[in-house]
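Example 3.2
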Amino acid sequence: MEYKISQSGLKDLERTEGCPALWKANHIDKEVEFIATPAMKTGQYFEHLCLGTDTGVLEIPKLKSGKESVEETRIKLQSEIFKSFYDKSHPDFQGWTVVEKDVKLHDDTTKGIIDYVIENDKGERMYMDLKLVQDLYQGYYMFGHHDVADYTQQIFYQRILDSLGINAKVGLLIFEKGKSMRIKEISPIDITPLSIEAIDFRINRAYDVMAHYNRNGWPKVPDEMECNRCPLKCDRRFVVPELEITEEEIEEVEKYQRITLEI
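Structure, written as tokens:
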């Protein structure tokens, strides 16, 4: 089956510190088991609460006492607010209802999964991306700062919709799990033709890079973090050198410990 690049695959390939051989094993050959970070897991849990979809994370760890954490309490409260926005019987109803979830889209070269689709009483649809962040104004996406926020994922989705001839816009709904519990909605996102051209350029460049590596070999770039999760047999694997400690050095440490105790 011909490979179609996702927005996450695009970003990973563009990373200057990444290992191309590992990228291929991960995104094309599917030889790497995906390990979600704690932040990803809380996001998947939030999505499950909001949409009822099976994200693979149906609960998050409790405190040692068995009680839910403050973070979990906030996530649950935010999920209830999310539901109220699309509930016709609720005072906070926004005029849209959820009509589809986990929508898989693809064209000739790209693919993506959009969290959910909403529709109003005019039959107009919007494809929505749902995010849970610690802080709107800090972290990876920086959604609180419109001029520096990373909208790559949403522009990528809009490009797919346009290429498929689907007359709809992409929106974004962000919830904080931090103490401020702020909510920000950008729907629809103002995606300009120039933004689509820019993502097209990045996609075309990615395929050029893949073609180059297919012709000349996929380089192996050692990195401590990436090598730890890499299943490939590699002669360039990053290895932490084992330090040899001499008897004299051990005696010096023991001597220092005795002096410290005496003091």
